[in-house]
Amino acid sequence: MPPLAAFLLLSGCGVETFLDPQGPVAAQQRTHFWLVTALMALVVLPVLTLTPWLIWRYRDRGGADYEPRWAFSRAWEVALWGGPALVVAVLAALLWINATRLDPYAPLVSDADPLRVQAVGYDWKWLFLYPDLGIASVDLLAFPAARPLEIELTSATVMQSFFVPALGSQIYAMGGMSTWLHLGADAPGRFGGENSQYNGKGFHMQKFEAVAMDDEAFEAWARHAATAPALDAAALEALGREGVASDLARALDRQGGEILFGGLPDDLFARVMSETAKAPMAAHDRADGQ
Amino acid sequence: MTLSGFLDAALGRLDWNALPFWEMVAHPSASSIINGLIASGAAGVMVLGALVTVWALTRYSLWGALWRDWLTSLDHKKIGIMYIALAFVMLARALAEASVMRTQQAVGLGGGFLSPEHFGQLFSTHGTIMIFFMAMPFLTGVINFVMPLQIGARDVAFPLLNSVSLALTAAGAALVMASLLLTPFSIGGWSGYPPFTETGYSPDVGPDYWIWAVTLSSLGTTLAGMNFAVTIYKKRAPGMTMFRMPLFCWTALCVSILMIFAMPPLTLATSMLALDRYLDFHFFTNTGGGDPMLYANMFWLFGHPEVYILILPAFGVYSEVISTLSGKKLYGYTSLALATICIAVLSFTVWVHHFFTMGQSASLNAVFGIATMLIGIPTGVKVYDWMLTLYRGRVRLGVPMIYAAGFLMLFVIGGATGIVLANPSLDYVTHNTLFLVAHFHNMLIPGLLFGMLAAYAFWFPKAFGFRLEEKWGRRAAVSWIAGFILAFFPLYGLGLLGMPRRTVAFFEPAYLPFTLVALAGAGLVLFAFGCLVAQLVVSIRERERRRVPAGDPWDGRSLEWSIPAPAPEWNFAVLPKVETRDPFTEAKEQGRAYRSPEDYEDIGMPRNSAVGPIVGVAGFACAFGLVWYMWWLASLGALLGLGAMLARGFVRDTVRVIPAAEVRKAHEGWLAMVHATPRIPRHEENTPANLGHAIPASQEEQ
Hints:
Chain B: It is found in: Cell membrane. Chain B: It comes from Limimaricola litoreus. The complex is a heterodimer of chains A (290) and B (702). Chain A is of the alpha+beta class. Chain A has 8 helices and 11 strands. Chain A has helices at 2-10, 24-57, 74-101, 215-226, 233-240, 245-252, 268-278, 286-289, and strands at residues 115-122, 125-130, 135-138, 140-144, 149-155, 160-164, 168-173, 179-183, 189-195, 207-213, 260-261. In chain A, the strands form 2 sheets. In chain A, strands 8-5-1-2-3-11 form a 6-stranded mixed sheet. In chain A, helix 2 packs antiparallel against helix 3. The two termini of chain A are 45 Å apart. With 702 residues, chain B is mostly helical.
């Protein structure tokens, strides 16, 4: 797809994608992507050009050579198996290096300590817990641009997939268990995030914003969040109901749609995880809610 | 028992809400009326189609013929044709759904006209139908029709089982069709991932429709796989060694083995999901010790070999088409056979690549990624082998060759994006996006579907005795190719921009130009389908000018071209003796073709049986009863189906003997006709002069 992707970049439409990376993970993924694309062009271009040529050159009654019984050549066999094998060998080496280096579970190389965030997927919003700061937010992942993110994820409902295209890798969030993702931003900025795993009728609305801030702004934001009401049982119950963030804001009577929590119950993440795994089915039976 | 108690027992959980227009009548709003009208329109078209069919069958007194000549027939050719007819009907529905979805996304910036539930049902039925009730019946039908003819057999190994396989598949398709009238279908996608499809999150009947439709289809496919494998192992004509089989038969064999080993994990996965939903088991729930990741593993343990079940028969078709329409031996036969085997084996080692993002360790993902890339090697070999078959041939750009050319060029692009996705670290940014959707459509439309349409054009004369019209066929082929490019290349772009799949609406204005181009592509694809319909109508109307009674319209190379068109019930008057590859070409070149056999023998062919249709009706009844909790109907269906199969065990008189004299009369008559028919060179093959008697390309003066 090189022409198409080039068009995307040249068009400068400002859409967020790993092809216009805003963090170290996405940047490596972009390099790897173009490398793989270039290598594949070696295989694809001969087919794209030679197929029409062969069909024209050897058309019926076209006067070209005709060898109806020719069906084997040792040299061609070696080339046909060897060529692709060689390309795949190079690709496999690249694959191994990048799969290891971009392992979403591996911490990013950085002098700064990572910021620990716990993400919980709900229908159809994300709750971000900051266990070290005792605060939480809904559909807003704020973090200092100078520090890498260390995100632990789970789902309070069905499978979801946490994805910020401009920063790179996505990972599933699943009920009763946790997964990990390490991301970072190069500089302060606002990046669109989404759930990419279909989870029902509000799926297309499940968007969030990842905001990389400079240190001062982040500290100010954290102080601001700490003044918000605590994440109590009523708020947890409201989070568990189907609806997007604006529905939740209405339920919690938050002005301006901003949903922050200034205090967290102990071990909330672990509790959500174990309760999702243990809860009787009826507890989140949606037939009741409709 | 009170009336309401009786109705509850009789109807289970079926009530007025199931009707597609009920919501808009009960709660009228702009959205419910628009969606209600679309859903009711679709159901109406289906009901109307059924009524017109019933009326036509009655008006022209065709019920008896339908029953005797088709539904109860155990002839592999007729069963194959019925499979393909089913595939075309289901293709029409799934294409219509695709067009509605494309239209929705073309106006979906910030809204659109479809409700999220409606959109969810559309992508779920579209995927389920295209895989299980379009692609699978199409390729099973083509294998059914072609493979026994190519290996020189009179039927498959288990003719009755063949009919039962078809009936089970048709029952599954009927269940999906029923969900149009008695809604809703699942919104959980074609892969039906729990816990979303568990009762806790989807308490309605949708996932149950999906579970039982897929279960019926997977049972039918497992049985078909066994049947084909045994046929190839045991029913080859004398001298037809494995390495003399046409390449299509190699792909059919590998596909059969994949069917036998890959379908059971699916049957198990859907059965376990059913146990979760009906009997409160906890295999795949979040709760009670269940694990949804198990489902993902089981589903894709089926799902990845399935991809090769879909693509290998098309590879076989392309091998036959490219070789025949180049008037040349297939280049690298042994390589192609070995590459097919490699792909079949490797297809079992790559399933994790469907969920690299589930949190496995990097090294595990890397191993599965590399295994995935390895498949690129034999596939690349195949592509180059086909190109070398064109090399120094005499290539005719007939309809099957247009599809083959489109396939070669588009398929490598799909392969390249597949290699991108095989990299776990790149999959992390493309998974669940439209890039993935574009990739698998790129493999399945130019790969599978073009292959099947090429097969349809190529073998149609053998099935019905006349050639398909050429002009509409070309229009269809070119529109399919252009429509595919317009509809799916923009999706690669959207995927790279991070647009997730299964999105009813979006909020990023930059997506809009892409979805508009994709809509134009969908329109062109619809036009292509219309061309196929027009082609069939025109061909039937002009069939007398297109007849190829001598049976060899394309200067064919394998055994199926050495018999009349349409092929007689017994296929071969005398079983052929095979000494080489491309036996019919060799025979023609050496002047041995169309010789009278020394002697004829009585031929035993399977008698008709009603067991297949009964099992089909019973399977549908059982599944429909299970969906709506009509336990009486489910039990009745199960008993009827099992009873019919048990009863069949007591039927002793299953063979109908066709006396040697009758075979002799038919065959000698045909041979005399062939000898009286002028032989034509290749450039006349699309003219009325083509009566199916070919000058071998290698002996043609140019």
